[in-house]
């Protein structure tokens, strides 16, 4: 039995270490689902999802963000007059879900030239961010503490007598 996790890693945002692990393994590529999309990492905390939704208007698309999941749905409301001789531009309804990492929030959405762009930002609370813990040292009857800033400048000052 073959298990293909490709659909899972393609639709997650903010799990960059997971992307690296899966991208480096020899996983077979599955067919793209409708609508095609890109996920771009703008910088360390900003991402953009672009969906190709040609033939849809912004009023026919809904975006819902709840907890760690982003859902984009499209439903054509108006059918054109006439009979298609050939229909190459898909107008079928769709529902695309993206799993978001903790603290990834939707910042904005825009629609231009048939592309729906959704901007995401990772906002980690200060209490959850890694912080540098200074190490106190004792020498004889003095207590010395490294009071360097987060940049690690290494200044040592005498704080108090033991």
Describe this protein's structure.
With 162 residues, the chain is mostly beta strands. The chain folds into 2 domains: 6-24 and 31-79 and 87-122, Immunoglobulin-like, CATH 2.60.40; 133-161, no CATH class. It has 2 helices and 11 strands, in the order αβαββββββββββ. The chain has helices at 6-10, 16-23; strands at 12-13, 37-43, 46-52, 61-66, 69-74, 94-100, 104-112, 115-122, 136-139, 142-146, 156-161. The strands form 3 sheets. A 4-stranded mixed β-sheet has the order 1-6-5-4. A hairpin with a 2-residue loop joins strand 4 and strand 5. It is elongated and about 95 Å long. The model is unreliable at 21-31 and 148-162 (pLDDT under 50).
Give me some keywords for this one.
four-stranded mixed beta sheet, mainly beta, 8% helix, 162 residues, 2 domains, 11 strands, 2 helices
Short recap of the structure:
By secondary structure, this protein is mainly beta.
Present the secondary structure layout.
Elements: H1 6-10, E1 12-13, H2 16-23, E2 37-43, E3 46-52, E4 61-66, E5 69-74, E6 94-100, E7 104-112, E8 115-122, E9 136-139, E10 142-146, E11 156-161
Parallel strand pairs: 1-6
Antiparallel strand pairs: 2-3, 3-8, 4-5, 5-6, 7-8, 9-10, 10-11
In the residues, how many domains can be counted? 2
Q: Approximately how much helix is present in the residues?
A: under 10%
Report the top-level CATH class of the largest domain: Mainly Beta
Category by helix and strand content? mainly beta
The major pleated sheet works out as:
4 strands, mixed
- Total DSSP E strands: 11
Instruction: Give the low-confidence spans.
Output: 21-31, 148-162
CATH topology of the largest domain: Immunoglobulin-like
* Topology pattern, helix = H, strand = E: HEHEEEEEEEEEE
Share of residues in strands: 35-45%
Number of helices: 2
Distance between the termini: 67 Å
Could you report the average pLDDT, rounded to the nearest whole number?
76
What would you call the shape? Answer: elongated
């Amino acid at each position: 039995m073959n298990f293909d996790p490709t659909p899972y890693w393609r639709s997650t945002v903010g799990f960059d270490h997971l992307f690296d692990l899966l991208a480096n393994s020899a996983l077979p590529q599955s067919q793209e689902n409708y609508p095609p999309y890109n996920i771009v990492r703008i910088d360390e905390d900003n991402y953009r999802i672009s969906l190709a939704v040609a033939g849809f208007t912004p009023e026919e698309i809904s975006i819902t963000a709840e907890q760690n999941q982003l859902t984009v749905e499209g439903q054509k409301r108006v059918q054109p007059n006439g009979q298609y001789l050939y229909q190459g531009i898909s107008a079928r309804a769709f529902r695309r879900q993206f799993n978001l990492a903790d603290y990834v929030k939707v910042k904005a959405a825009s629609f231009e030239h048939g592309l729906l762009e959704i901007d995401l930002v990772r906002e980690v609370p200060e209490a959850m961010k890694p912080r540098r813990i200074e190490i106190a040292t004792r020498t004889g009857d003095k207590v010395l503490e490294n009071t360097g800033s987060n940049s690690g400048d290494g200044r040592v000052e005498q704080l108090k007598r033991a």
